[in-house]
Write a sequence for this structure.
């Protein structure tokens, strides 16, 4: 047996990266969530070769103070929580202080940032190496840019799992769409290989919100969806549920948010499936964009590193509320002819 030794920070970060950094889309998710947490109103994403060669996220948020820049790349370093109690009611998208450390350990990362009270911007660079990041002056308006180049350049085993450029880009675009539905008050712009692919302007009123839903879900969705807005027992559910006639062969138009965080939750999926049970053919999947607002102290979002899962304190109550609300919403479209076999 060899002796026990501590892993180098770089290797520790690369191992941890396995949990959150699977592909360019997961990098995009972490960077965009950071931008949203910083109070950005506009986020620009620039991508080359599906995000494998380059993924750049630029925001107009709070920025990071020069002294904090090296810390931003360190593991377990966060400005979002301080004590365990803070986790109980966390509203920011991030809080684990791991994303930038993980991403920078498997890519060539440059972080440029400027706060409102600084007279200039500062930049740190890493190359997946164990070095003290260098902080140097740079030009940048108030806000932050993170540039991630050559993802997995130093971890060939991970690189092998990347798919074709188009597949990676599709995943990445889906991440942006999910976040764009979570935050109508923020503009999202995406360029791929020099071409504008998505341009979602800040959507303040109801009309522009609907326009954004149409851009993300396709114009047919809203024409064939029922609006929902219910508040009961401290729970609020709003959004749109697709009519059974607008069901899909894949579960690819299903957006469910808990307090602004998109989740893929078994309990939620079950409640929705039950509500649609008698109006959908076997093998068809409902479509929906739904937002659940609930006391943050009654949900645990720290279940999984990517935070796709949540745990409700009173899961029965949440389930019944969702099922009841959706079942009632679909009541009008529940005549016999919906369940009859097609001619
Ligand atoms: P977390 O988001 O869990 O705190 P990250 O590794 O994603 O951890 O980011 C570390 C810290 O860097 C954040 O807590 C935040 O203070 C700062 N940060 C990262 N990205 C941005 C950004 N776009 N704007 C402002 N601050 C940022
Ligand atoms: Mg983060």
């Amino acid at each position: 047996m060899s002796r026990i030794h501590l892993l180098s920070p770089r290797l520790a970060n690369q191992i941890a990266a396995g949990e959150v950094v699977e592909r360019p889309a997961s990098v995009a998710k972490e960077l965009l969530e950071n931008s949203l947490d910083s109070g950005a109103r506009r986020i620009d994403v620039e991508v080359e070769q599906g995000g494998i060669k380059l993924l750049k996220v630029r925001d107009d948020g709070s920025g990071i103070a020069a002294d904090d820049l090296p810390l931003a790349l360190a593991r377990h370093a966060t400005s979002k929580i301080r004590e365990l109690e803070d986790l109980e009611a966390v509203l920011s998208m991030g809080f684990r202080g791991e994303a930038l450390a993980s991403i920078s350990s498997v890519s060539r990362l440059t972080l440029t940032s400027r706060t409102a009270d600084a007279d200039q911007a500062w930049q740190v660079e890493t190359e997946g190496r164990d070095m003290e990041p260098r902080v140097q002056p740079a030009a940048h308006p108030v806000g932050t840019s993170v540039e991630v180049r050559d993802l997995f350049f130093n971890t060939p085993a991970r690189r092998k799992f990347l798919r074709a450029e188009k597949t990676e880009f599709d995943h990445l675009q889906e991440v942006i769409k999910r976040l764009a539905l979570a935050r109508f008050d923020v503009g999202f712009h995406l360029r791929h290989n020099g071409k504008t692919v998505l341009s979602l302007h800040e959507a303040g009123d109801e009309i522009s919100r609907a326009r954004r839903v149409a851009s993300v879900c396709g114009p047919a969705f809203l024409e064939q969806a029922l609006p929902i807005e219910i508040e009961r027992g401290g729970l609020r559910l709003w959004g749109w549920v697709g009519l059974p006639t607008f069901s899909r062969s894949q579960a690819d138009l299903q957006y469910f948010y808990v307090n602004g965080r998109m989740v893929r939750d078994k309990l939620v999926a079950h409640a929705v499936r039950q509500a649609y049970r008698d109006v959908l053919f076997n093998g068809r999947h409902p479509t929906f964009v739904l937002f659940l607002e609930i006391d943050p102290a009654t949900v645990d979002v720290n279940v999984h590193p990517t935070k796709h899962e949540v745990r409700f304190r009173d899961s029965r109550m949440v389930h019944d509320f969702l099922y009841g609300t959706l079942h009632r919403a679909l009541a009008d479209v529940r005549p016999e002819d919906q369940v009859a076999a097609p001619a």
The chain is about 30% helix and 25% strand.
